[in-house]
Amino acid sequence: MKALEGRTEKRALHVLSILFDFVVIALGTLTMVYVIRMIIDLAISSFRHFVPEDALQGIVLILIFLEVFEIIVMYIAYHHVPMKSVVEIGVLALVKELLVNIDLAELGWQMLFGIAALIAAMGWVYTRERQREDAHTEFMIEHGIEENT
């Protein structure tokens, strides 16, 4: 009876894993379709009436969605997402927020302090992740191990 439960659980986990992968692939596809639509909309609006601030905000938003797409692709390929990529999206989102609220005097000192703290925290996480990756690469080189990427 115990063996039957083990097989049933493994089969259920396998089906759920396939379903999860399907959902992630669908999200990746929808993300890329949305990026293409944003590029077309940005081009059309820029030809009609070019506003540099709007164009810059649109470009940064496209970059954010491309980073999200890259994370989805990494997850599909490796079933793992490096923290460095998530931090990059956070930095891009903060840059976009600062571009939207270009009048920094209206933000107030509390918001500016919060943004500065977020940037510092993300910088720390990004630096630690880079150090970890560099140490891993150095270990692999020292021991003559080739990575299968």
TrEMBL record:
<protein>
    <recommendedName>
        <fullName>Phosphate-starvation-inducible E-like protein</fullName>
    </recommendedName>
</protein>
<dbReference type="InterPro" id="IPR020948">
    <property type="entry name" value="P_starv_induced_PsiE-like"/>
</dbReference>
<keyword id="KW-1133">Transmembrane helix</keyword>
<dbReference type="Pfam" id="PF06146">
    <property type="entry name" value="PsiE"/>
</dbReference>
<feature type="transmembrane region" description="Helical">
    <location>
        <begin position="12"/>
        <end position="36"/>
    </location>
</feature>
<keyword id="KW-0812">Transmembrane</keyword>
<keyword id="KW-0472">Membrane</keyword>
<feature type="transmembrane region" description="Helical">
    <location>
        <begin position="108"/>
        <end position="126"/>
    </location>
</feature>
<feature type="transmembrane region" description="Helical">
    <location>
        <begin position="56"/>
        <end position="78"/>
    </location>
</feature>
<dbReference type="GO" id="GO:0005886">
    <property type="term" value="C:plasma membrane"/>
</dbReference>
<keyword id="KW-1003">Cell membrane</keyword>
